[in-house]
Specification:
Helices cover 53% and strands 14% of the residues. It is built from ten helices and eight strands. It has helices at 2-24, 35-48, 63-73, 87-96, 108-117, 128-136, 152-160, 176-184, 199-203, 207-225, and strands spanning 26-30, 53-57, 78-82, 101-103, 121-123, 141-144, 167-170, 191-193. The longest helix has 23 residues, at 2-24.
Length: 226
């Protein structure tokens, strides 16, 4: 009974977080090498631009600390963790306050563990086999990664024909130039991007530019959604 209840909680929490992601429309994919110095001002810059969300990747060792500091600086933010490839990373991220988990590929063991932790997980899927496996596990929102390199919007639309039950979060190759086209597609819930949080922008502490790029993104999303 406890396991069954946990499954129900997982899907309820996932539905709520997925709606928040869709409402925001763009999820900055962030690598922070110096979280003690950059996490808080970055969080404030994103929120100021109308993007109160972040996917902090495990490509940098300081990901858990960055999640903690961003959440403390801006409690209203939806902060998750990305590039997760093992259970231990999930434990660290959840302990730090991560609200969702993103994986670069589809791993049923990580999905099962996310259900145990009752934390939403969005695995990277680009093939019919991966979509089918995700369907069996009851998932509804998938990360489509790497988006542009895997066929882009044309493939996303093609995949939607046999799998209309899924919404996707394309990540990889997203920019201000193509964000609007992606967001016009009904099966796209949100996009993931790093163009507003590049290493150069963060390293040079160009917080105002980050805020402006977020604001531009919000305007593009609003126009695309009509």
């Amino acid at each position: 009974m406890d396991e069954e209840r946990n499954q129900i909680d997982f899907f309820e929490v996932t539905e709520r977080i997925s709606k928040q992601i869709s409402q925001i429309g763009i999820i900055p994919v962030i690598r922070l090498d110096n979280p003690a110095e950059d996490a808080a001002p970055l969080a404030k810059a994103l929120c100021a631009g109308g993007v109160p969300a972040a996917e902090v990747t495990f490509r940098a060792a300081g990901a858990p600390k960055a999640i903690q500091l961003m959440t403390e600086a801006c409690p209203q933010m939806l902060v998750g963790v990305g590039t997760v490839t093992e259970k231990g990373q999930m434990d660290q991220a959840v302990d730090a306050g991560a609200k969702f988990i993103v994986t670069p590929g589809f791993d049923p063991e990580l999905v099962a563990y996310a259900k145990e932790l009752c934390v939403p997980i969005y695995p990277g899927c680009t093939t019919p086999s991966e979509y089918h496996a995700a369907l069996k596990l009851g998932l509804k929102l998938l990360k489509f990664f790497p988006a542009e390199q895997s066929g882009g919007l044309a493939k996303i639309k093609a995949m939607s024909a046999p799998f209309p039950m899924f919404q996707v979060m394309p990540t990889g190759g997203i920019s201000l130039k193509n964000l609007g086209e992606y967001m016009k597609a009904p099966m796209v819930a949100a996009c993931g991007g790093s163009y507003m949080v590049t290493a150069e922008l963060i390293g040079q502490k160009r917080w105002d530019e980050i805020t402006e790029l977020c604001a531009q993104s919000c305007r593009i999303i609003e126009e695309a959604r009509g």
